[in-house]
Fold this protein.
Amino acid sequence: MNIENKERYKLSDLDELMEYMWIKPQISKLNVDIFVDDGGSYERNEHTLLLFVRNGHGRSVSEFIPISISENPYIMDDEKVLKISSEDIFAVKSFIKLNMGLLISMAQSKISHEVFVSQLKEVSSEQKQD
């Protein structure tokens, strides 16, 4: 997939994650950490609504995978070398589809962190597989 303006979707500094809510596996029930826009970062930075996935266990900004929040989520950096499994990527995409309304409401500051977490839908084991 040819992704335009992909530089917009790459983190250049860990401080940029301050605009995102860190969702740990204990909350999401996924195997990876995800970072969800919780205050309109996508509008301020003029890019597609997305979330970031930690690509393994590193803390470098180059480790984060941007994935679109859409009906058909996709990795927004086609040069990214994945250090997590394709099953984990599929599960994150399923999580996005299942919780898209909440993810959008959170990014638009229409709901609180507490409401977001309390209403998250868990991805079933069947939904986590290709």
